[in-house]
Amino acid sequence: MTDDPALWSAIVIGALGTFVWRFLGVTIASRVRADSPLFVWIGCVAYAMVAGLMARVLLMPGGDIDLVSMGWRAAAFLVGFVTWFLTRKSVPLGLLGGVGAYAGIVAAGL
Amino acid sequence: MADSIPTTAPSPLPHPFLSGMRDCIGVPALGLGLTMVGFGAMCQDAGLELLPAVGITGLVWGIAGQVALIEIHSGGGGLVAVFVAVALANLRMLPMAVTGLSAVLGNRRIPYLGRLALMQAMAITCWVQMMTRADHVPPPQRVTYYIGFALTLFMAGLIGTATGHELGRVVPPAVLTVTIFMTPLYLLLLISGARQWINRLSVAFGVAIGVGLFPTLGDWAVIAAGLVGGTIAFLISPKLFPERDTDQ
């Protein structure tokens, strides 16, 4: 299948499907001042979009890695977030708390 | 760290490229590499050979779009369907490229193709690094630092994909699920600590909308999270925090 032209066409088209946004982003970046309200808004959209995707992947990953129910995933996330908040926003400790809690849930077979 | 606004310029790094590499090795590269192990195994299941599997990671470089590509192609979808699905899944690259480019370049000017090449390597992990964890890099060294970071992440992605494809599910599912849990948690904690309140609010609204609407909207929920959540934060933040964000 390495020589499968249909597959490679799909790969090139898929690469273009991502490249189009990178290209538009670079083009827009050169036309928007970094201190303008429009730039601030684009930043808000970027933060919210990344946050929405990461939260979805965290809670509802789908596929065969979905060993743990959403409720327990949310619980592990909360442990991590609260740990992070209470430790003056220490990312290593928050990560340790959340991943530790999640590993415990997996080990317990919940 | 995320709360403090640097009052003095950071001192120059002796080796900005190596600093970028070093900052990537650890949670960023490990998390992304193992995510790509999962993707490589998915390619193996879909009947792809090694070269196309690694080619997808290298050329698309955005996990959501890569998964969409495999799903649509395996399902017999045509090229238009592939393009639409990948573009939809990776739309976040647009606002990430606009803001990420500014974070990488500062006031530096480099040729258009160079800027395009820098953004071709952009990924969520790189973007979050440059937005929240690059205060210690002096602006003139940021391009070099970013290249070191992004190239290391890219290598981790290629190696992860190849490993997942060749060794399949050699990583036990229990270990894989724990390591894959790590990356979104890590990135969420980093962006939750964004320096400006307007961006912290964006994160909160993005999480609520992205999770709340996913069951009904699917991949569109991420776009709704960005546009609706980001816009709400943009509109209400100046009213909630009238003096907080005026320093930048």
From TrEMBL, chain A:
Keywords: Membrane, Transmembrane, Transmembrane helix. The chain crosses the membrane at residues 6-26, 38-58, 70-87. InterPro entries: Brnchd-chn_aa_trnsp_AzlD. Pfam families: AzlD. The keyword Transmembrane applies. This is AzlD domain-containing protein. It comes from Pacificispira spongiicola.
Automatic annotation (TrEMBL), chain B:
The keyword Translocase does not apply. InterPro entries: Brnchd-chn_aa_trnsp_permease. Keywords: Cell membrane, Membrane, Transmembrane, Transmembrane helix, Transport. Its main location: membrane. Pfam families: AzlC. The keyword Cell membrane applies. Signal peptide: none annotated. GO terms for biological process: L-valine transmembrane transport. GO terms for cellular component: plasma membrane. It is found in: Cell membrane. It is a multi-pass membrane protein. The chain crosses the membrane at residues 50-70, 77-98, 143-164, 170-190, 197-214, 220-241. It comes from the Bacteria. Belongs to the AzlC family. This is Branched-chain amino acid ABC transporter permease.
